[in-house]
Design a protein that fits this description.
This is beta-N-acetylhexosaminidase. By secondary structure, this protein is an alpha/beta fold. Helices cover about 30% and strands about 20% of the residues. The structure holds ligand TNX.
């Protein structure tokens, strides 16, 4: 994946399945993809595109590049039946597949999934498993949210206390109830740099790019707990702060000083050495400005830099890192708040609040990844009803996600649409504390999302959700079973997937749809 998304951003995909009434046995080799499965690369097909042909000679996959060949293999795997999704074969019968020609290419170059491993740490093996799950669904970006108020999850050798202190918290708020409920067990964990190199390499073998996020200047209390001098020491006793045990937006944010900027350059130096991808996410969301308003140091900084206010101070910090990353051949990406106060050229925006930020950013020439919380936040509850575990946010059903349209209607048909380089589904983990909860929130909705991000579907109202549901029931739930995914069954949670007694928090403002917002 490179950053020439403009060319491939919104190209129509052509999926031509021409079934013929014959089948061929796939033979030879130790796995389903060897033997009489031939592969080749023909760049004229374009990035990530493939043509899959099954005939009397076996299967042939021609990819526009190696990624295209790999996506073609995933389609072939789907044709082999659910067994092909197990880690080892169980059936003795020969595998036969129907004659077919599939010509296929992705609609978007960035087809992402964000996993928040900061609020709850997910062990390395679970992350590797998610890489496999993304690859099986032709998703190609894993965005790891590595730092937040509640935990710092990446080893930084120059600043070891980030993980010694910042990688664990004393206890954890359970759900969102009042009065709060607490799980009194300490929670924590972090990835060594070699763990992350392993994840990056494993993902690369599957044509998935890992995008690291180091969130600043808000969502940084774990770092401040580790190094109190990173905080606004002139207004708060930062030495008394601990890694946050609660959820929400804290007042404790980084101080806007040169020393803090240098510290984060050290951090990013090490991050760049581990993550070779072009994009580096620096957060930028939900930075409370209370302490900057009260802090003489922050106020002096505003005057010294000739800025108007605290928002400009955040903008100054983000621009600094945009230039710093650009000088090292990388591109900054951040949450849509980074638009406020103006953004450096070349920086990209992840639009999570309605569609407005995405529209403004695309019109200003920035690349945009659309991931509005009103549509594709997978931490939000997926059905009404009393049995849903720890219901949070708005209800986004499987059908809602299937009807998500990444290109805001106002941009459709304009040159700015090409700036929408892709879409992403985000899974925050305040109330998803382990792999089982993550699976339940992600699936089956991530399947609907993957189809939206890959395929050229009709407009949201015209999409045939009934057909998607039929394909889920006829084939895909069985594949998820074979993969061992703890998805939400269509009839509701299994008893062991429920969380009675842990209250959630639903958003009470109405959920605006893309139609209302644009
Ligand atoms: C907003 S989305 C956040 C996260 C929360 C999430 C919960 C974003 C950039 N910030 O810190 O976990 O809502 O849905």
């Amino acid at each position: 994946m490179d950053d020439s998304y403009g060319e491939t951003g919104c190209v129509a995909s052509e999926l031509n399945v021409i079934p013929a009434p014959s089948r061929v046995e796939l033979t030879g080799g130790s796995g389903p993809f060897s033997g009489n499965v031939r592969t080749d690369v023909d760049p004229s097909l374009g990035p990530e595109a493939y043509r899959l042909t099954v005939s009397a000679d076996g299967a042939g996959i021609v990819g526009g590049d190696e990624a295209g060949v790999f996506w073609g293999r995933q389609t072939l795997r789907q044709m082999l039946g659910p067994e092909a999704f197990r880690r080892a074969p169980t059936a003795r019968e020969p595998v036969t597949v129907p004659y077919v020609i599939v010509e296929d290419r992705p609609r978007f170059a960035w087809r992402g999934f964000m996993l928040d491993v900061a609020r709850h740490f997910l062990p390395k093996d679970d992350v590797l498993r998610y890489v496999d799950l993304l690859a099986a669904h032709k998703l190609n970006v894993l965005h790891l949210h590595l730092t937040d108020d509640q935990g710092w999850r990446v080893e930084i050798r120059r600043h070891p206390r980030l993980t010694e202190t910042g990688a664990w918290r004393r206890r954890t708020r359970l759900g969102w109830g009042t009065p709060p409920l607490w799980d009194e067990r300490p929670h924590g964990g972090f990835y060594t740099q070699d763990d992350l190199r392993e994840i990056v390499a494993y993902a690369a073998e599957r044509h998935v790019t890992v995008v690291p996020e180091i969130d600043l200047p808000g969502h940084s209390q774990a770092a401040i707990a580790a190094y109190p001098e990173l905080g606004n020491t002139d207004v708060v006793d930062t030495a008394a702060l601990e890694v946050w045990t609660d959820w929400g937006i804290t007042r404790n944010v980084l101080a806007p000083t040169d020393a803090v900027v240098r510290f984060y350059e050290d951090v990013l130096d090490e991050v760049l050495a581990v993550f070779p991808g072009r994009f580096v996410h620096i957060g930028g969301d939900e930075c409370a400005k209370d302490q900057w308003r009260e802090s003489p140091t922050a106020q002096a900084r505003i005057r010294e830099l000739g800025l108007e206010n605290e928002d400009d101070l955040q903008s100054w910090m983000i621009r600094h890192f945009a230039h710093w990353l650009a000088a090292r051949g990388r591109r900054l990406i951040g949450w849509d708040e980074i638009l406020e106060g103006g953004l450096a050229d070349g920086a990209a925006v992840m639009c999570w609040r309605w569609y407005a930020g995405g529209i403004a950013a695309a019109q200003a020439g920035h690349s945009v990844v659309m991931c509005p919380q009103q549509e594709v936040y997978l931490d939000h509850v997926q059905a009404h009803g009393p049995d849903e575990p720890v219901p949070f946010g708005w209800v986004h059903t499987l059908e809602d996600v299937y009807r998500f349209e990444p290109v805001p209607p106002r941009l459709a048909g304009t040159p700015y649409a090409a700036n929408i380089i892709g879409a992403q589904a985000n899974l925050w983990t305040e109330v998803a504390e382990n792999r089982g909860r993550v699976d339940y929130q992600a699936f089956p909705r991530l399947v609907a999302f993957a189809e939206v991000a890959w395929s050229r579907l009709p407009g949201p109202d015209e999409r045939d959700f009934g057909d998607f549901e039929r394909r889920m029931n006829a084939a895909h739930y069985a594949r998820l079973d074979a993969l061992g995914v703890g998805y939400r069954p269509p009839t509701g949670p299994h008893p062991w997937q429920q969380r009675p007694g842990i209250p959630g928090r639903m958003h009470n403002k109405p959920r605006k749809t893309w139609r209302m917002a644009t």
